[in-house]
Amino acid sequence: MKTLDSKVCVVTGGTAGIGREIARQLALEGAQVVLVGREPTKGAAVASELSTETKAKVEFVQADLLSKKSIDELGRRLATALPRIDVLINNAGGAFWERGVTSDGIERSLALNLLAPFQLTNALLPLLERSAPARVINVATKPRKGDLVDLGDLQSEKKYDCFGAYGRAKTGLIMMTYEFARRLEGRGITVNCLHPGVVTETNFSQALPAMMRLLGPVFARVSGMRASLADAADTAVYLATAPELASTSGKYFVRHQPVDSLPQTYEAATAAKLWASCESLLARGQAA
């Protein structure tokens, strides 16, 4: 019997790159997989391809994770269409070379890398709790030492740089992983996050200048930091399937191992303030 027989797994950003490979591996383990992505034609095609390859049920649901309204609709649609969700993998992410805001007035890197998984996870909590034991897995990164959450400038209005905004948002995602774990303790839902490694076969760099898209893979290969899609997906699939992790929550994983993240991510008081700030941004749909 396969590890995920009869289980339902939702993967955001599941139509390309790491997300597609995560979805493929989950389907091979017997899961019913729901892919979330922006492009309906591409999404339907990928779902069909994976279903044919894995002999599993793979479906596609369209959503724009840069839109609060679209995420609201996604949450309602999934809660209505699915009998259960055993695993939610918040994989979608990306960096933006120039600062811009969404239609809700929220800086794009913050919106995609932190607010989207925060909003979707909260929207699906009732279904996840009814499906318990359930697992939430956030695909983060390895932030630099200076990538600290600045509660006074969450939207990078004072100073913006592409990788700094991305790193700070992902630091926030790690912090929110720990905060979700604290708040959901005893409710049958575990919440963990991971660093997948540096992967060049993704859409991550599509919003970056052409020269950086060209040099990025070269640097990753020369530095020895490059990971294959299969390797990048492996830890997420491990977190979704490993029986020994049934009660493990509030951890940051690299290559199957729990490791320490930035010291700031363990500050419960800061996490509580970040949670409140996220709620405020989503409630108002525009900058504070």
Average per-residue pLDDT, rounded, comes to 92
Estimated structural class: alpha/beta
Distance between the amino and carboxyl termini: 51 Å
Q: Tell me the name of the CATH class.
A: Alpha Beta
CATH 2nd-level architecture = 3-Layer(aba) Sandwich
Q: Report the helical percentage.
A: 40-55%
Considering the protein shown, what is the CATH homologous superfamily? NAD(P)-binding Rossmann-like Domain
Strand adjacency order, main sheet? 3-2-1-4-5-6-7-8
Estimate nothing, just give the exact number of structural domains: 1
Number of strands: 8
How would you spell out the order of helices and strands?
Answer: EHEHEHEHEHEHHEEH
Tertiary shape: globular
Multimerization state: single chain
Beta content comes to 5-15%
Low-confidence stretches: none
Q: Please outline the major beta sheet.
A: 8 strands, mixed
For this structure, the CATH topology is: Rossmann fold
Q: Please report the number of helical segments.
A: 8
What can you see in these coordinates?
There is one protein chain. The protein is of the alpha/beta class. It has one domain (8-284): Rossmann fold. 45% of the residues lie in helices and 14% in strands. An eight-stranded mixed beta sheet has the order 3-2-1-4-5-6-7-8, with helices on both faces. Strand 1 (8-12), helix 1 (17-28) and strand 2 (32-37) form a beta-alpha-beta unit. Helix 3 (68-81) packs parallel to helix 4 (108-130), helix 4 (108-130) packs parallel to helix 5 (162-183) and helix 5 packs across helix 8.
